From TrEMBL:
Residue ranges of coiled coil: none
Signal peptide: none
Lineage: Eukaryota, Viridiplantae, Streptophyta, Embryophyta, Tracheophyta
Protein name: Acyl-CoA N-acyltransferases (NAT) superfamily protein
Keyword entries, A-Z: Acyltransferase, Transferase
Alphabetized GO MF terms: acyltransferase activity, transferring groups other than amino-acyl groups
Taxonomy, superkingdom: Eukaryota
InterPro entries per the UniProt record, alphabetical: Acyl_CoA_acyltransferase, GNAT_dom, Plant_NAT
Organism whose genome encodes this protein: Quillaja saponaria (Soap bark tree)
Record Pfam families: Acetyltransf_1
Length: 404
């Protein structure tokens, strides 16, 4: 069947009419290779759950014109983020002015959840869905569009880079750590403070707003019901007296991280594991629960639906910042254990110095999550940056938890 033989209608998703058809396509797209371990996602009956917390979002479906059958879908959202920085002069006295970096923002769109039924692939449906979504992006003023895909997913990479005009842009790492049956110890030399959303916003805007992909509506993220809090690690004995005092006179070393409750959005499940692997995993949990003081690294129950917490807004300064991050990750692990999660995950730039403090299992993680980007228009609102698609990567990147 060739592309010209397939007649589909691409239209906006209707929850009442399309939910079951979309779930069917999702299941058929997630059929793993025979005899191999695969990761399945359950969207908990809400096909737009992974974009609905964004400022602006849309889901499209591809429907066979004659059969009224859903054969594909795509999700997209639009937000304003930092794409670079410029120097700004401050001070009333022109002879005593200082310069400081300030963020340059742009409106960017994000594509995720592109699916085409296996029986209708290589017919142009995926390309049709992407083009229709890009039309909506342009109508709503987005200047760039980007996607994230597994670098090993050659079909997806080829679609976007060869047919849709995207270019390879960034390669962050997804770091995943299991939640053990025992609690993880946190250094007694570190004090962990939970910040109020307003203090967290002040800290992020004043210290991290020039980081690439930093969302201008960070306040909406921090105040979202899925955000479990922002946590600051400081040396033991440090007294918190407010964000203004902290920012004007911080300790020598500190670190910050925020926690997002993805468990209430979707669950994951590992399928295709052999009986031997399942038995081994169960044995590690039994031993860990029986002898928790040994702190053995047990394998959580990943062969049934499990939830995760996502760590975002990772940052810090000072010679002991990596140790502070490690303490925060230990704290986050224990929080995830209390809330019944199977794993804790984060995504950071491959060049991020603080990633050394993030514990993770390599078998669960992804060293290279490929981000591809495309410029949608000829004019820029980010003139001081130029063409963002050609800019070199920085040390850090801000991964929005609403799109993980």
């Amino acid at each position: 069947m060739g592309e010209k033989d397939v007649i589909v209608v691409v239209r906006e998703f209707d929850h009442e009419k399309d939910r079951l058809g979309v779930e069917d396509v999702e299941k058929r797209c997630e059929v793993g290779p025979s005899g191999k371990v695969s990761l399945f996602t359950d969207l908990l009956g809400d096909p737009i759950c992974r974009v609905r917390h964004s400022p602006s979002f849309l889901m499209l479906v591809a429907e066979m014109d004659d059969e009224k059958q859903i054969v594909g879908m795509i999700r997209g959202c639009i937000k304003t983020v930092t794409c670079g920085k410029k120097l700004s002069r401050s001070g009333k006295n022109p002879h005593q002015t200082t310069t400081k970096p300030v963020p340059v923002y742009t409106k960017v769109a994000y594509i995720l959840g592109l699916r085409v039924s296996p029986s209708h692939r290589r017919t142009g449906i995926g390309l049709q869905l992407v083009r229709k979504m890009e039309e909506w992006f342009k109508e709503n003023g987005a200047e760039y569009s980007y996607i994230a895909t597994d670098s090993d997913n050659l079909a997806s990479v080829k679609l976007f880079t060869d047919k849709c005009g995207y270019s390879k842009f960034r390669t962050p790492s997804i770091l995943v750590n299991p939640v053990f049956a025992h609690r993880v110890g946190v250094s007694h030399r570190v004090t962990i403070i939970k910040l109020t959303p307003s203090d967290a916003e002040c800290l992020y805007r004043r210290r991290f707003s020039t980081i690439e992909f930093f969302p201008r509506d960070i306040d909406s993220v921090l105040n979202n019901k899925l955000s479990l809090g922002t946590f600051l690690a400081v040396p033991r004995g440090f007294t918190w007296t407010g964000s203004d005092r902290f920012l004007s006179d911080p300790p020598e070393s500190w670190a910050v991280i925020s926690v997002w409750n993805s468990k209430d959005v979707f669950t994951l499940e590992v399928r295709g594991a052999s009986r031997m692997k399942r038995t081994l995993a169960k044995t590690t949990r039994i031993v860990d629960r029986a002898l928790p003081w040994l702190r053995l690294p047990s394998i959580p129950e990943l062969f049934r639906p499990f939830g995760l917490h996502f760590l975002y807004g990772l940052g810090g300064e000072g010679p002991n910042a990596v140790k502070m991050v490690k303490a925060l990750c230990g704290f986050a692990h224990n929080l995830a254990k209390e809330r019944g999660c199977g794993v804790v995950a984060t995504e950071v730039s491959s060049r991020e110095p603080l990633r050394l403090g993030v514990p993770h299992w390599r078998m669960l993680s992804c060293d290279e999550d490929l981000w591809c980007i495309k410029r949608l228009g000829e004019d820029y609102s980010d003139g001081s940056v130029g063409d963002w698609t050609k800019s070199p990567p920085g040390l850090s990147i801000f991964v929005d938890p609403r799109e993980f």
